[in-house]
Write a structure and sequence with these properties.
This protein is mainly beta. It has one domain: Maltoporin, Chain A, CATH 2.40.170. It is built from seven helices and 39 strands. Strand 19 and strand 20 form a beta hairpin. The chain is globular. It is found in: Cell outer membrane. GO terms for molecular function: siderophore uptake transmembrane transporter activity. Pfam families: Plug (PF07715), TonB_dep_Rec_b-barrel (PF00593). It is a multi-pass membrane protein.
């Protein structure tokens, strides 16, 4: 009976959206409007290109989709990307990956925020709650679905997530927003922005708390502060400054071992970035970027029923300098080239067996070009040359793509690319001991993980129906995957990191967009994936780490009198649970959002109600992690 009622609620929400649809002739877009509406991609090659010219499949999540999602966590937005899996290790440790998900950190994805890599060396991945920005700061997210080391180097093994925040000039005035709902969810946002014709500045403060999952000790309290300034120094020079501080207090448990008690932990992450761009002409510019970021985690607890205290605290820093030169030496040739220098430092007595920092310096040289061979055929080529202090030799990552326009609306793409992921400092120098017992040790020199990927794509636009279709067929060969290996087949201690796994993946991905008028929008994505693993220890570790089938659906409907609604549906078939050998059943998740925009005392105001997991289908994300139906209310005020 309860299930039938839940289904009825879901159908009612769907009918509320579909039943209110105006006729397709209302507020129609012209064919010219539709043809010009194809998103520009900024991240695929470091060159400004339309999606039809990009060398790899690209998904763009824009501000309208973000607002309509009803999500409060940035990582959840990746559910709209075909082939992506999003999971929660706990209420504050989130995981996202493309094609396979076998650990709780995105260590094989390059994640950028305004061009800054947010990879944390001491974690071997990305901490999504420590980005320093909130979902309200984002203008768009570009997801490069495939290896892209030719543009962004190591860690771009499976793809690139490029988060682009809003320009300071877009957020002048005051914005206040609160979210409050079940599970003790409480969020507050305050943004102050000001500017003139040459300088724009904004500061955003965020507070967030929630109680995590049922029957878990995993709540969090997060305080964020970020600032951005955009300065037009001269007709040809622009400067952009970014700074973030992210302070988090969390509860941590360990569902695998009773020897580790429930205990609190704290993290502090900070970043500073400056970009300077000098334009020589409309087709040539020079850009310099420097950033520094740090991450510190305090994590100390008493081990089992002993007087022994374990201190798993760690600290890491990254300094990165890069320049790039973009130019058009010929009318039919666009080119970008550049170089970069990076230094990573990690301090952790627990993980590295020493107090002094371990350091890894790396150098990179890159170039990409887009050459119009004919009026209908485009060649994209790129290469990245990298040298890492902790690995031997120089690594080369090339990319080649041919895009051919069959017509003004149909494009086919064939591409091949390679990429690497260099070993991290923790992997290369791990040395963990407890009370004189070795838990993990540095066994041998590691080599980079490697991927060779082939892709055939089709991008079609159908102006008559105001629709577009993006298809991708792919095959990937991934070698030398690094994972923990036990001392023997029985899984006994000590452990060590080793290159021991190889994986083959193949599949199909599709995205379909439909926007018949200015009031209705539909976004649909589907992915089919098959993974074969030759892992010498367990061939199912990677083989089942991605669902065979998954899809997402977003329907955005705007009504008269400034009412809006959105329906968001996500599905995945059976897959292996994160960090376990247990299988996770297929799952469907439905989110519904209803909103109303109005003027209050002369200021724009929005009131919205969101229900997540509408059907109350339990989503077993890892052992005891159960996602139940949750709802929250949102109030947003803007003062200009």
């Amino acid at each position: 009976m309860h299930k039938q009622a839940s289904c009825l609620y879901g159908l009612t929400g769907l009918l509320a959206i579909l039943g209110g649809m105006p006729s397709l002739q209302a507020a129609e877009l012209s064919e010219d409007d539709f043809l010009q509406d194809l998103p520009v991609v900024l991240s695929a090659t470091r060159l400004v290109q339309s999606r039809r010219d990009a060398p790899v499949a690209t998904t763009v999540i824009d501000r309208e989709m973000i607002d309509a999602s009803g999500f409060t966590e940035i990582v959840d937005l990746l559910r709209y990307v075909p082939g992506f899996v999003v999971n929660y290790d706990s209420g504050h440790v989130q995981a996202a990956s493309y094609h396979m998900l076998n650990n709780n950190l995105s260590r094989r994805m390059q994640v950028l925020v305004d061009g800054r890599s947010v990879y944390i060396p001491s974690l071997l991945g990305v901490q999504w709650t420590s980005l320093g920005i909130s979902i309200e700061d984002i203008e768009r997210i570009e997801v490069i679905r495939g290896p892209n080391a030719a543009s962004y180097g190591s860690n771009s093994l499976l793809g690139v997530i490029s988060i682009i925040t809003r320009h300071a000039s877009q957020d002048r005035g005051v914005m206040m927003k609160i979210n409050a709902g079940e599970n003790n969810l409480a969020e507050s946002f305050l943004r102050l922005g000001s500017g003139n014709e040459n300088l724009d500045m904004k500061v955003t403060a965020v507070y967030r708390q929630n109680d995590g999952f049922v029957d878990r000790y995993d709540s969090d309290k997060i305080r964020k502060l970020n600032a951005r300034a955009d300065y037009q120094a001269s007709l040809n020079d622009t400067l952009a400054f970014y700074a973030t501080v992210n302070n988090t207090k969390v509860q941590e448990d360990n569902v695998f071992s009773r020897d580790i008690p429930n205990h609190p932990a704290k993290t502090l992450s900070r970043s500073f970035q400056v970009d300077w761009t000098h334009s020589f002409s409309a087709n040539e510019d020079l850009k310099f970027q420097y950033y520094r970021q740090s991450y510190e985690k305090q994590n100390r607890y008493q081990y089992a029923d002993t007087p022994l205290f374990i201190d798993q605290s760690r600290r890491s820093e990254r300094d990165d300098f890069e320049f790039q030169h973009t130019l058009s030496p010929l009318d039919n040739l666009n080119l970008v080239w550049g170089a970069g220098l990076r230094t990573d430092r990690v301090i952790s007595n627990y993980y590295l067996g020493q107090t002094p920092a371990q350091t890894n310096r790396s150098y990179r040289l890159f170039s990409s070009l887009a050459w119009d061979i004919t009026t209908s055929t485009l060649l994209n080529a790129g290469v990245m040359l990298e040298d890492y202090q902790i690995t031997t030799g120089t690594e080369l990552s090339p990319m080649l793509s041919l895009n051919h326009n069959l017509s003004n609306t149909d494009t086919i793409r064939v591409s091949a690319s390679t990429a690497i992921r260099a070993p991290g400092l923790i992997e290369e120098y791990t040395d963990v001991s407890i009370a004189g017992n070795t838990i993990a040790y540095d066994a041998s020199k590691l080599t980079p993980e490697r991927i060779l990927a082939y892709e055939v794509g089709y991008l079609g636009r159908f102006p008559r129906y105001r629709a577009s279709l993006d298809l991708k067929l792919y095959r990937e060969y991934i070698n030398n995957l690094i994972s923990l290996a036990a001392a023997d087949a029985a899984g006994n201690l000590p452990y060590h990191f080793a290159n021991q796994d190889n994986v083959k993946t193949a599949g199909l991905e599709a995205t379909f967009s439909f926007k018949p008028n200015n009031k209705l929008r539909l976004e649909f994505s589907y992915a089919y994936a098959r993974i074969q693993s030759t892992d010498v220890r367990n061939t199912t570790q990677y083989a089942n780490s991605s669902p065979d089938d998954s899809f997402s659906l977003q329907i955005i409907q705007r009504f008269s009198h400034d009412y809006q609604s959105s329906l968001n549906v996500f599905y995945h078939s059976i897959m292996k649970q994160l960090a376990t050998e247990d299988m996770r059943s297929d799952n469907i998740r439905i989110n519904l959002r209803l909103g109303k925009t109005f003027i209050l005392a002369g200021n724009k105001t929005e009131l919205a109600f969101t229900v997540q997991n509408l059907l109350n289908e339990f989503e077993y994300t890892r052992l005891k992690n159960v996602a139940e139906r949750r709802s929250y209310l949102s109030l947003k005020l803007e003062f200009r």
